[in-house]
């Protein structure tokens, strides 16, 4: 080895190991993972974007989240609720759009706040003057312990649902009712009263919708009767019978149910025969 190579080797040993650049930060999971809920309520698409902090052995309400003070209702960026159609939220009409969701937790009740500022991180940019609505709901004990803050959309019945906010041992909830009833009713009236569509299936569907929604029984019975006049099908007669019973005409209901059972027997729909006979037995007791 010549003098030059010996000198380089000596310098390398004296300098120690070569330093390589390292990353300044590690890639770690989010401490409060973000998530999105999507649910159709009636014709309305409901979306909720939020982050999910964990309990981690802490006292949450009355501790980490103080009573009587506004809370971001999650972690990280503000929780965002989006509706594609107008809806009634907590008993109040809300236009379609995007809203930030804040709350003021208390021991017995919570104030629910929907605000039009949607670009904030946590409470950044929140201003009470931008509140679209506020309403109060009861605070309950949750059915189980929720380690992570959890928003759920449950109780989907007809055109409505319930939003639950659950964390630790606490749960609050409020209803969301879509504008589906308004749209469906408008279509029924337009097709029957304006366009004059004289179709048995349309009268039946209109009557069935009113029956299920417990709307105007007299109007529903009129449509059901019209459907039977145009086409005495077993299912049309069955609906007419139930509407007659709802109107208190049990004698008429029994007669319609008997006709429905006969037609169902001919068409080999035995389940309708059973349904009609069961209802006839119940209504005979009311005569």
From TrEMBL:
SUPFAM superfamilies: HCP-like. Residues 1-24 form the signal peptide. The keyword Signal applies. Coiled coil: none annotated. Gene3D superfamilies: 1.25.40.1040. It comes from the Bacteria. The keyword Transmembrane helix does not apply. Keywords: Signal. This is DUF2911 family protein. The lineage of its organism: Bacteria, Pseudomonadati, Bacteroidota, Cytophagia, Cytophagales.
């Amino acid at each position: 080895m010549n003098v030059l190579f010996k000198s380089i080797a000596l310098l390398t040993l004296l300098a120690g190991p070569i330093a390589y650049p390292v990353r300044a930060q590690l890639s770690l999971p989010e401490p409060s993972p973000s998530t999105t809920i999507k649910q159709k309520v009636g014709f309305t698409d409901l979306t909720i974007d939020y982050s999910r902090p964990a309990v981690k052995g802490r006292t949450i309400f009355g501790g980490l989240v103080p009573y009587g003070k506004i809370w971001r209702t999650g972690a990280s960026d503000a929780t965002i609720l989006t509706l594609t159609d107008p809806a009634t939220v907590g008993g109040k009409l809300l236009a379609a759009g995007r809203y930030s969701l804040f709350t003021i937790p208390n021991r017995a009740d919570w104030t629910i706040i929907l605000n039009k500022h949607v670009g904030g991180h946590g409470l950044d940019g929140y201003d009470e003057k931008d509140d679209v609505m506020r309403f109060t709901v009861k605070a309950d004990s949750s059915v189980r312990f929720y380690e992570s803050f959890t928003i759920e959309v449950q109780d989907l019945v007809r055109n409505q649902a319930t939003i639950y906010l659950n964390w630790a041992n606490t749960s609050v909830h409020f209803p969301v009712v879509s504008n589906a009833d308004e749209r469906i009713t408008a279509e029924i009236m337009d097709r029957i009263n304006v366009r004059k569509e004289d179709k048995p299936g349309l009268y039946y569907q209109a009557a069935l919708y009113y029956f299920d929604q417990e709307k105007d029984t007299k109007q529903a019975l009129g449509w059901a009767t019209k459907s039977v006049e145009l086409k005495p099908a077993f299912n049309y007669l069955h609906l007419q019978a139930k509407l007659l019973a709802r109107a208190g005409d049990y004698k008429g209901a029994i007669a319609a149910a008997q006709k429905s059972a006969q037609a169902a027997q001919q068409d080999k729909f035995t389940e309708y025969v059973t349904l009609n006979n069961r209802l006839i037995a119940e209504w005979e007791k009311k005569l």
